[in-house]
User: Fold these one by one.
Assistant:
Number 1:
Amino acid sequence: MKIVNAFYLAIMNRLIAKVPEINYFDWWNNQLNNEEEDLPFNFPAIFMEYDPINWQTLGRKRQAAIVTFRLYIAIDNLMEKSSNEKEKIREGALKDTDIISCIFKALQGYNGGGCFGSITRNNEIPDHNSDAIQVPVLEFRTRLVDNYAQPETIKLTNVKFKFTGEFYKKTI
């Protein structure tokens, strides 16, 4: 499997397991501005994108790159958070944005063994211009290692070879 697809699936599976409030996960394709053209989804929804990847060759058909990826976090923003609201309503509205901290907790320091290194949060971009849907963005960074071009190897265990004189004579 290509490294970018494996990385996407690792992030998706990690977030769905650690943040059960997530109702939808997909690649970012500007879905919120093209709702009539895309499949419907429930909120909160997470959309992932990454910057262009500048690969560096490590040798032995392996490459690595520092990758920046973003998570667009689409949250219903129907309840008011202002001081004019009752405290219970305000607390409920603010609880909706707790998912940002939960995503940070799930991904910070997470690594995929040989596939990718420890993830670190790089940036957080709040959404100050939202109406019914708020879309803050979390930006993370990690190191991907791509071994896809390496030939597959098979590890033999508990195999015994018996060499005979006949074999030896034929190979010389």
Number 2:
Amino acid sequence: MVKNWPWLVTGSIVVGLAIGWTTAREQELPPTTSVQDQAPVAPRDAPRPLWTKDDFLKTQKDQWRALMEGKADSFRDLLAEWTNDEIRAALDASLTQPDCVLPSGAAAGSPARLLAEWMRRDFDAALAWFEGLDSATAKERLSLVIGRQWPPDRAAEGLAFMKANRNLYRGGRGWHFLEKNL
């Protein structure tokens, strides 16, 4: 085998060139449009002032503060018109969409937001749905929502739930339950 290595290298190069040649042949491309063929873009009425870093950070802080105080939540406003069944259907569908379940997905927070809204409306039904999930990964990702949305008046039940599901609340992930029991 050692004596045949020059043939192997030569053969690999020949095969690589053949594959490259067959894949690099020109394919028919759709006709391109020129810049003159495109419709002109309407100019803005007045130019907007450029944002500074401080403007951006202030806006983000204001939006976060409003969200935490429950004053402004466009997602919650949208869901206000939905029924519990629609929220559950959207939640089920979101768990099958890569954009919703992958951490870098465009809608990565959607399942958690949907579950939080459903728990706010019908805690027992949402908890039963969560407990019936087959996917351990989905349960682990949504477990923080369960702790965060657990009703304070049922704090002792929450602590029992956390103990029964220790695999979901490792490494301090169950602090919401502990906080509600203090």
Number 3:
Amino acid sequence: MCGSGITSKRLRISCLITTMKAAPLASPLVPRLRMARNLLETDVSMRILALLLALFAGVPQRAPELQLNLVAAPPPPERPGNVKGIGSGCAVGTSHRPPATFKVTLADTDRLAYQVGDTMSYNVILENTSTAPIVLGISRDPEVAPKTMSPCRVVPPGVRFGVALVAMTKTGPGASISSVGFYGSLDVPGTTLALEPGERVRVQVPAQIWPGPGMTPVLTTDPQPVRMKAFVMIEHDSMLAEYSENTLEIELNHRFQRQ
């Protein structure tokens, strides 16, 4: 049927198709096409891998978060006459705000509702955003970091680390809800923590709720919502102070009706 004597055009085409189906492809184009396809697939895979590596390489790796539990800090030693540190009652102010060297986040509180006089604990996260270490006092003993009265400053090499919860008003920070201080000295081992540049530390802080005078007329026996920020102050060679960037809300009330 498909011999050399075929004269019909349609029959010749049919025979050609039948022959192509029956015979294996021996053209050198086929392996080249397969090679090109393999190269293309490999190139696409390499491009995807390079893109993923570039994305992950561009994400800065955060340093591990340190943990500091000041709730477990031992109480200060008892001394005759309950002598306080030199200048423990003086306060220092500043007429200008220095550049921020650390960032504060008020992470959480142990409960959502409190009464005046309650003990509590909460967590603040400090991040050193400067290029130098920041030293925190972690002892409850004020004698390791005494202060002079005039000028009002910590005696070197002492350091004081204070944390407060401050009620927020429509115009900004208001009365203090609680405050606590910790002390340290570079000469007394185990009383300080150095936070290196870029490091973060989660600090568990103990406190007792004693609102300042500005909140006394506001509070009743009915729970009231109070928005608050954390305020951190570090006194060493200089004074550093910063509010938390965020706020948290708790409910607060007096235990008994005020007379």
Number 4:
Amino acid sequence: MRQAGQSEWKGITIMSEINSQLALAPVHAPTAPEGQSLEEKRAAVLALDLDGAVVVATIREHLRRRSGKPWSLSGGRGTAYGWIRIHAPPARRVAPFDYMAEEDRAELGRLLGLTGPVHQQGESIPTGNDYRRVYLARAMFGEDLGFTASPYWD
């Protein structure tokens, strides 16, 4: 029997509760002190929750800490469900196609430890825990720390 304020479907109620808790809970992502060993950095990444919403919040927070700027992260919908996209916030995008500015592309590439700038539409993280670990390491420490991911699709 449904109580007042409760959704008809339990799944929706549970997701609403989880989303409201994530929105209110501060991100307690570990910081990266200088002099930390590779093993300590890898252990910090391995200790993180790989839930999509937590990964988005953690990457967003570490990119902001390291660059001093906000970054937009969004989760995919439909056929891109589970993918995460990192891009500049709307105020820093360039018209007419809503692309990232060259400076932001270069900076995001540097923050993620890539060899060059990211695509003009941002960086896409495929769904999957291996990819999430790689990008958590890149956002936190600017390198992949030896974590690897390979495509699971053909």
